[in-house]
Design goal:
Its EC number is 2.5.1.54. It catalyses: D-erythrose 4-phosphate + phosphoenolpyruvate + H2O = 7-phospho-2-dehydro-3-deoxy-D-arabino-heptonate + phosphate. Belongs to the class-I DAHP synthase family. It is built from ten helices and ten strands. By secondary structure, it is an alpha/beta fold. The protein has one domain: Aldolase class I (TIM Barrel). Helix 3 packs parallel to helix 4, helix 6 packs across helix 7 and helix 9 runs parallel beside helix 10.
């Protein structure tokens, strides 16, 4: 089988736009953003974490337009919210489908990963230059070495939360990492993942110069639980309380981020505002252990199929998203709830 040589992580980090921008203070900003997220998770900062943005980036220019809008809102609500941009470049699949900009940048299954790495890093660097912290779901552990330096909040998804390599990766990653409950809706698997990520591990990985090496982690103190629903939602107060009790029983900090999309909205973007309203009421009612909310949002409402003809840059090609005009009021709602809780 033919093989395509990939750049090393160090070569990718030094390449073009990404290297130039990273050399101008982005690294310091990322470190500060990670600390800010960790402060919210520990409740030393009373603000609410809000991770918001497209399901998966398919058009970097349009996604940067979205980032500009979000950066303005993040500044406006900065007294009450720590807003993080979903900058996801990989898309997990149950069976098949487009796997994201990084593994398939031409959206046609050709798998030009070398180009995807260059385009993906350029997008992440430019998005970080807006001043926003970036969120990323780590799907392929090898890819993590190409993007982790620009990420301020990470996620391990519902399909991989039981995977030992992903738990080891989370223990090594230098940013807070959220563990989503699995697709069945079972929370215990994710609680176990939080515990595992908090421990030290030795495991194979990729060094900056591209060599296979032994990575040794000291454990991630900021690993935490994300409720994303399953066959039934789990965002309501009773389910949040049950999840917090499970964390406490496992000797873990009782803190939870809740995803308003996926199983909690039945994958219907129109249901996300109702989920956010419920979560805002819990926050306003004084639940300090509900430390964050996730929202799938993009420039325009809905989604489109890759095979439907010329693609619109402003419309998701994966999960349906809320348009920006419907997202901005949700940020205001969450900001008011965080202010009331404080």
């Amino acid at each position: 089988m033919p093989e395509d040589t990939l750049p090393t992580p160090a070569e990718a980090a030094a390449h073009g736009v990404a290297g130039a921008i990273a050399a101008h203070g982005v690294a310091d900003a990322v470190a500060g953003h990670r600390d800010a997220v960790a402060e919210v998770l520990s409740r030393r900062d009373p603000r609410l974490l809000v991770v918001v943005g497209p399901c998966s980036v398919h058009d970097p220019e349009a996604a940067l337009d979205y980032a500009g809008l979000l950066a303005g809102a993040a500044e406006r609500f900065s007294d009450d919210l720590v807003v993080v941009l979903r900058a996801y470049l990989e898309k997990p699949r149950t069976v098949s489908g487009w796997t994201g900009l990084l593994p398939d940048p031409t959206l046609d299954g050709k798998g030009d990963i070398a180009t995807g790495i260059r385009r993906g890093r350029a997008f992440l660097a430019e998005a970080a230059a807006t001043g926003l912290p970036l969120a990323y779901e780590f799907v392929d552990p090898v890819v993590a070495h190409y993007v982790a330096d620009l990420v301020s909040w990470g996620a391990i998804g519902a399909r991989t939360v039981a995977s030992q390599p992903h738990r080891h990766l989370a223990s090594w990653l230098p940013m807070p990492v959220g563990m989503k409950n699995d697709v069945s809706g079972h929370v215990g698997t994710a609680v176990d993942a939080v515990r595992a990520a908090g421990l030290s591990h030795a495991f194979p990985g990729v060094s900056a110069d591209g060599r296979l090496t032994t990575l040794r982690s000291t454990g991630n103190p900021d690993a935490h639980l994300v409720l994303r629903g399953g066959p039934t939602p789990n965002y309501d107060a009773a389910n949040v309380a049950a999840a917090l009790a499970a964390l406490s029983a496992a000797g873990l900090p009782p803190r939870v981020v809740v995803d308003a999309s996926h199983g909690n909205s039945g994958k219907d973007h129109d249901r996300q505002p109702a989920v956010v309203a419920d979560l805002a009421a819990q926050v306003a009612g004084g639940n300090r252990a509900l430390v964050g909310v996730m929202v799938e949002s993009y420039l325009s409402d809905g989604r489109q199929d890759l095979t439907a003809g010329p693609l619109r840059p402003d419309l998701s090609v994966t999960d349906s998203c809320l348009g920006w005009d419907r997202t901005a009021p949700l940020l205001e709602t969450l900001a008011r709830a965080a202010l009331r809780r404080r």
